[in-house]
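BACKBONE STRUCTURE TOKENS:
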Amino acid sequence: MDLNKYKNLTRGISDTYVNVHPIQRGGVLTAEARKALLEFGDGYSVCDYCFESRVDLVDKPPVHDFTGDVAEFLNMDDVRFTAGCRHAKWAVMHMVCEPGDTVVVDALAHYTSYLAAEANKLCIVEVPHNGYPMFEIDPQGYAVKFEEIEQKTGKLPSIAVLTHVDYRYGNIADAEKVGEICKEYGVPFLLNTAYSSGIMPVDGKKLHVDFLCGSGHKSWAASAPIGILATTYEWSTRVFNKSTCRGDWSGRGFSKKEVALFGCSPVFGAPVATLMASFPAVVERVKHWDKEVRNAQYFVNELEKIEGFHQMGVKPKQHPLMNFESLPLHEIAEKDKRRGYFLYHELKKRKIVGLHPGMSKNFKINTYGLKHEQIEYVANAFKDIARENGIKVEE
């Protein structure tokens, strides 16, 4: 066993690099969160003054107050923190559905939405998208599937899941319309906001949401793993149902512990501390969402000046997570000894990181939180790579 490889761990990049990783931009820690990371990095470090046996009820640091503030921020009624957005989705399905029930999901859903359903032994039915190049979800598709499921099984689905912003193309789905359809049919509505809440304005009640699941480490400038599960008073008691079991010999019971959260969500140290520390900045930054959209549209405009580059997904771009088709680069990569790693290495030479190694035919990128001059620098880097390899660039 070589233990030396675990010493002096580093990422291999410095602050001078521009990181455009599609899943990392919204999770970049604030300066306040980095301080909290050092202060609360030890396991269970927020539990020094835990008197109620649950992390969400801790008053020092003010986790209990924080749950109320996050609920207000999202315009929901009750909030818990979870071991990631995936845990939040699993918890809702576990408490709301029965094995064999049907869940309706959009065809752009994250794999964890499928696995959450599978783990709860649910039947999965997809609402399709309209394919290349838009990959758009039609809200009316939910009504169509509800009708089909009721006709086939004799009952409506137990829950409907919509990905607010999908992880592949960064399309913003019409959550309000889907919410209206769910209300009309009486189907509980779960909105996955892993790529929206925390970086853009999200109003749960305006969107007719019953369950809002978010990701602290994707979009709330927090350390991983931490998710957010917000719900309404109508569902709060059911989703956050407390334990009723009792040991047959010892008589032990755990009446304060919430079953779907494993009694107390495992976010005791750095995750919840950094989430709290970044919260004031998160509340402020969603007010400037229009600037992020303008930056994304600028970037798309610049990259589409390169011959053969096309932004996939809905246009004009409304979210900084984007996916480009780049067939000319792929043709070059096919002849380059680095093959698909050609683009990754060319960008890294220019101190740009975050593109998935091996991708050249298409790639995902995220400009969220970058300064305009950084976005301009990245766009110019792509143009330089194109010119160096004989690809035409519109001036």
Remarks:
- The first strand starts at residue 18 and ends at 19.
- The chain has a mean pLDDT of 96.
- The chain has two domains: 4-25+289-388, 30-286.
